[in-house]
Design goal:
By secondary structure, the protein is α/β, with parallel strands linked by helices. It has a domain at 5-156 and 189-214 and 282-297: Rossmann fold. The chain has helices at 14-25, 62-68, 90-107, 128-143, 162-172, 191-203, 222-232, 244-260, 271-276, 303-306, 308-311, 321-325, and strands spanning 5-9, 29-34, 52-56, 74-77, 113-116, 119-122, 148-152, 155-156, 175-179, 185-186, 189-190, 211-214, 220-221, 238-242. Helix 3 packs parallel to helix 4 (128-143). The radius of gyration is 20 Å and the shape is globular. 45% of the residues are buried. The structure holds NADP nicotinamide-adenine-dinucleotide phosphate.
Amino acid sequence: MADELIVVFGGSGFVGRYVVKELARRGKRVRVPMRRPHIGQDLRVLGDVGQIQLVQANVRFPESVDRALDGATGVVNLVGILSEKGPQTFFNIQAEGAATIAAMASKRGLDRFVHVSALGAGRKSRARYAKTKTEAEEAVRAAIPASTVLRPSVMFGAEDTFFNRFAAMAKFLPVLPLPGFGSVKFQPLYVGDFAEAVANALDDKGARGRTFELGGPRVYSFKQLMQFIADTIERSRMLIPVPPFVMQMLGGVCGTLFRLQPLPINPPLTADQVEMLRADNVVQASGKIGTIADLGVTNLETVEAITPSYLWRFRPYGEFQAKQTA
Ligand SMILES: NC(=O)c1ccc[n+]([C@@H]2O[C@H](COP(=O)([O-])OP(=O)(O)OC[C@H]3O[C@@H](n4cnc5c(N)ncnc54)[C@H](OP(=O)(O)O)[C@@H]3O)[C@@H](O)[C@H]2O)c1
């Protein structure tokens, strides 16, 4: 419906772009609040002429969030960070930021609100990423009881951080470290399937006030995923178990170095991310908690079908690797 205006906070990120594209495909007008809209002009081509609007907003500044909601009929919050830098802390962005968006939306009487959390939120975790995701869920629900909370597992797609990051590591390192024995479990979900679930959640009255845990069709151990990545990029790499405290130290050093010497890229590993690697990242839907199928998304894409289409660039001879080895 062209009279609908969905505001997608975090619409400029990896997941956000797929969500914006899916909403535009369904004929909705989409507004993307960004810190630097001048560098996001490519987002406009995800929809028809004039269908996607970019505005300046920063969740740390409530007035800018309020302005961004002007005329909105629905809201999606995808704002998140993987590591902290300056005022971009987990608390400021994921907990306070979500609370601000929900409070401003509630003030305007908007209750069509989809909040994107992460698997692991709601369970006890020492990772600040997960803790602030839990705080965000609580704040959003308190402000808008009808909001829908989505907790996805790790997502894959051409621009993902998980598969691309470990493929890049496998390209440069002779060995791949496995925290513990690499037995922690993941249920990777294709970002396009997730975008469909977000769009369905916005339209589905039955999803209001509910929480969903979303995962892909298969569960893998971390070790299986590392082996799959090494095989896909055709580089034989030893997978070495590393005791959790050593990984914690590596993550701590890496995170601190990047904080002291800010670089335009995220640190490859932080202590918080190592902490996240201690708990299984799989769907535990039960009773009140729904799944991606409950949101009407079935026939999910698999890791094996999608990731080789973009991981080939990490092979020794890129797209020509098959010819070289033939
Ligand atoms: N990717 C995954 O595998 C995965 C798995 C589970 C859950 N999630 C959750 O899904 C959400 C999206 O993840 P992603 O992978 O797409 O992350 P991403 O690529 O890093 O995108 C993060 C988004 O947050 C925005 N943002 C950051 N700080 C902001 C601020 N101060 N004010 C306004 N916007 C701000 C960024 O916008 P600008 O920088 O353009 O302003 C960007 O659009 C996050 O909440 C994440 O925790 C992701």
